[in-house]
Amino acid sequence: MTSTNKKSVLVIGGGAVGAIAALNLDLGGLAVVTLVLRSNYEAVNKSGYDFESCDHGTVNAWKPSVVRNTIPNITRESLPPYDYVLLATKNIPDIPPTVVDLIAPALPKNNTHTTLVLLQNGLNIEKPFLTSHPDTPVLSGVSLIGSAEISPGQIIHDEPDKLFIGAFPHPSIPSTTLSALAQNFVAIYSAAHKTQCTHSPNVLHDRWKKLVYNACLNPICALTGLDTGRIRLADGALEALVKPAMREIVEAAKVCAGVELEQGIVQWTIDMDPLESYLKPSMQQDLEKGNFIEFENLLGEPLREGRRAGVSMPTLEVLYGLARAVQWRSKEARGVVGVPRRQ
Ligand SMILES: *[C@@H]1O[C@H](CO)[C@@H](O)[C@H](O)[C@H]1NC(C)=O
Ligand SMILES: *[C@@H]1O[C@H](CO)[C@@H](O)[C@H](O)[C@H]1NC(C)=O
Hints:
Number of domains: 2
Bound molecules: 2-acetamido-2-deoxy-beta-D-glucopyranose
Low-confidence stretches: none
Number of strands: 10
Mean pLDDT: 95
Number of helices: 12
Strand content: 15-25%
CATH topology of the largest domain: Rossmann fold
């Protein structure tokens, strides 16, 4: 295959998840990868990434074809439109800029060429794009991966990259077209034969299933400061917090999306990682680093869907209120909001 047959892929976000995706796409040889970085740009541009990876072994000083610290404006820079734009940043809609504003310069006007791939968690993440770019096909990437960036450009990858790709339903693009785009992306991603990337058409099933963890254990660990092992040991936490929250998600999945999650999904999710791994979910890691948390798409959207459908979600209501207040605390710390001073 000549290089002209390669697909051009713009990967936005090169943290622990985006870097592995970019590496994997590059190694497969079917993609020319441009990677947009922010905080780790200096380190990666100078020395490349170093990976210790369960899928790829030790890889040192790796860089994709192009590394940038800005989103390309394809109009201003006269660049051909990308075949795929893969978004692997955190999704924090309550903090500007929104992901829609972020990627806008990289998409053609009234785009029909570029397929968007959202490698992000949570519910309804495609909705803003269907409004802002109504002709753009949008794919869902649900990733089960254990990886961390321990310092800029240094990636430890200790749980295999398992990626489920499917198309979000689209009001005007035929499902056969969407399905072909999803399968093409799976082929490009799988070409290195290092990871498990599968076409999984039931996007809502995959997303609700992951919410059993992400809307429940993730914020509960963040808010209590207890990792997924300690929350299982903590007095009463599973029965009072974790299981009720998970049962609310299971019910909402059924009522809102017609998604019947597997029997035993609650206990399965609790037991997913060995207790002794004492893993910290992403929101807990983010809070400890003083970062904003992704609570709106992980917790707010399933709660709002459930409310609209009349599902009783008392545990998630409280978790959402607490998460929102904690986010406000981070906003004040970062100067995004201020408090009135005594006159
Ligand atoms: C991209 O650049 C063009 C030309 O300079 C400008 O008009 C346009 O607003 C830019 N697009 C975005 C989304 O920033
Ligand atoms: C883009 O779409 C809008 C709304 O559908 C339309 O009014 C406009 O003419 C289109 N522009 C181009 C360049 O096709």
